[in-house]
Amino acid sequence: MNYMGKKWIKEHKKEHYYKNAKRYGYRARSAYKLIQINRKFNIFKNVYSLLDLGCAPGSWLQISIDFISDNLKKTKKKIKPKILGIDLKKITPINGVDFLQMDIHDKSLQMKLNEFFDNKKIDLIISDCSIKKTGNKTLDQVSQIKICDRILEIAINLLKKNSFLILKCFEGSEVPKFLKSVKEKFHKVRKFIPEATRSRSNEIFLVCQSILP
Ligand SMILES: C[S@@+](CC[C@H](N)C(=O)[O-])C[C@H]1O[C@@H](n2cnc3c(N)ncnc32)[C@H](O)[C@@H]1O
Q1: What is the pLDDT of residues 64-116, one digit of tens each?
Q2: Is ligand 1 within 6 A of the CB of residue 140?
Q3: Is residue 21 part of a domain?
Q4: For residue 15, is it within any domain?
């Protein structure tokens, strides 16, 4: 297939996810990235408590509510789910979700998380958190890794032993070093690029499973 043909297919896919997000009331096309991550890794199994870092406008939270509601229907246990989203930007409220408008680097965050989750460890942390790109790939990658380092730190303090952490990096020379530090903390770490990720993007998701003792 020639270049124009490939380009058409990629643009068509992008359009497809955008239209579907609008049709089903998702706030962003990225909803499909989380659906595809879950389809591959089954990350929502037995999840009732969840933290979404960098959650605005909230499509990942919308998807999370759906999966957690399904889990609640399947269990006989009486569980009150705890779902928290954090972002620099405000979001329009979502039923069943709590929200904190703050920077994930803020030192008071850990205390607020402990308070919200009643000093208990949680089932899942998801993050699509990303810096505003400047166009300078090296700089952007370094800033994104700072975010990833912080997310890793939060996860180590908050996640239950066998749980998943999902986070986003931009592929580049900084990633191998970060990947090494993640592998020192988690039993299994896999790279994943959902089909819904734009073809031009260098984003990859790390699917990290089971914190090491
Ligand atoms: C790609 S968007 C997330 C989209 C979201 N997953 C959804 O489906 O609606 C990335 C978000 O990360 C947030 N963000 C970036 N840096 C942050 C920081 N230091 N603290 C909190 N949020 C941050 C941005 O404000 C932005 O809303």
Answers
A1: 999 999 999 999 889 999 999 999 999 999 999 999 999 999 999 999 999 99
A2: no
A3: no
A4: no
Q: What's the total number of domains in the chain?
A: 1
**Report field, pTM of the whole predicted structure over 0.90:** yes
Q: How many other C-beta atoms are found inside a 10 Å radius of the C-beta of residue 146?
A: 12
Range of 183's domain? 30-211
β-strand 186-192 against 203-211: which pairing, if any? antiparallel
Q: Residue 198 maps to which CATH number?
A: 3.40.50.150
> Which parts of the chain sit beneath pLDDT 70?
1-15, 17-18
Distance 113 CA to ligand 1 centre (A): 17
Ligand 1 nearest atom to the CA of residue 103, by list position? 20
Q: What percent of the chain has pLDDT over 70?
A: 91
In a domain, 44, yes or no: yes
Q: Tell me, yes or no, whether 11 lies in a domain.
A: no
Give me the active site residues, please: 168
